[in-house]
Amino acid sequence: MITLEALTKDFGSTRAVNELSVDITAGKVTGFLGPNGAGKSTTMRMILGLDSPTAGKSLVNGVPYAKLRYPLHTVGAHISGTAGHPGHTPRTFLKALAQSNRIPVRRAEQALAEVGLQSVATKRIGGFSLGMRQRLGIAAALLGDPQILILDEPMNGLDAEAILWIRQLMRTRADAGGTIFVSSHLMSEVQQVADHLILIGRGELITEAPTQELIQEFTQQLITVRTPRASALAGLLLQQGAKVNNAGEGHLEVIGMPLERIGALAFAGGIELHELSIIHGSLENAYKQLTHDTVDYSAELTGGVKTK
Ligand SMILES: Nc1ncnc2c1ncn2[C@@H]1O[C@H](COP(=O)(O)OP(=O)(O)OP(=O)(O)O)[C@@H](O)[C@H]1O
Asked: Going by CATH, does the domain composed of 222-301 fall within 3.30.70?
């Protein structure tokens, strides 16, 4: 279990993480989603004691990471960057890591087997592809056979087969009671494996919920509307409490209002519609709406254009 309590980090005048409070619980894969620069890596680094919080705290099984008695047995982490010295081989790197952390050296061979790097165990890490480095980083994370895994964008650079493999690895460990915390900037990468999603943007929590709940909420409610009077319709919909995004010229995307009601409001307002339809399977779209810069009509109505 990982607990974040109003976790905050400033780098000079940049607030990278802003009062983030969430629990990452055992027996689940928790996806940590947000666009580039949202604060995912900084949050993970603070959990691991690699960055110190400006305010707030993070706890691993109830204590700060630095107070863990056997850190690598408790938490395995793969944070972006290269694992191991380029002159090392996977075997020498993992054995040294095991020895310096009082982990039986045989675990090095087991971890190599688990990530499928046995055939290159004696090759220099310097010549490895990004995908092989990712596997090696994951092997290092697995070395102490920890109950908690923190993986920062582990699918970067992996081919389709390796992505399936890592999803399976996360699933198996979560089903065995592990706590898996995995970041990505792509909804599609984690949607299939995460039981729970935490979405952040600009360092702040946007939403967190079980994946199925988010899918249901968003896939049923995203309505696409095309009309030559988009601005006028957006005004009407906003007045009635819908969330409206400008998706292009004459094209609106609406959340939080049934299709029939949108049609009725347009009819009552004398607004011609060219399309009114539900977008299915659009968790990815909803994610983009929540996290990407989008122009929104609420700002236009109040006289300026605001991105959020
Ligand atoms: N060491 C640092 N010094 C100054 N600013 C930093 C530092 N590390 C991160 N930042 C800034 O903090 C913010 C959050 O960055 P962070 O790397 O945590 O985001 P992220 O969600 O992991 O993004 P990415 O997916 O691109 O890695 C960004 O504005 C980034 O530029």
From this structure: yes
Q: Which residue has the tokens 């909420």?
A: 217
Mean pLDDT value across residues 257-267: 95
Q: Are 115 and 138 in contact (CB under 8 A)?
A: yes
CA atoms of 182 and 76, how far apart (whole Å) = 12
* Cα–ligand 1 centroid distance for 205 (angstroms): 16
ipTM, 2 dp: 0.96
Amino acid at 151: L
In 3D space, the residue among 192, 145, 186 whose CA is nearest the CA of residue 166 turns out to be 192
Nearest one of 141, 160, 143 to 152, comparing CA atoms: 141
For ligand 1, atom 9, name the residue with the nearest CA. 42
Ligand 1 pocket residue status of 36, Cβ below 6 Å: yes
Give Rg (Cα) of the chain: 23
Per CATH, which fold does 2-209 belong to? Rossmann fold (3.40.50)
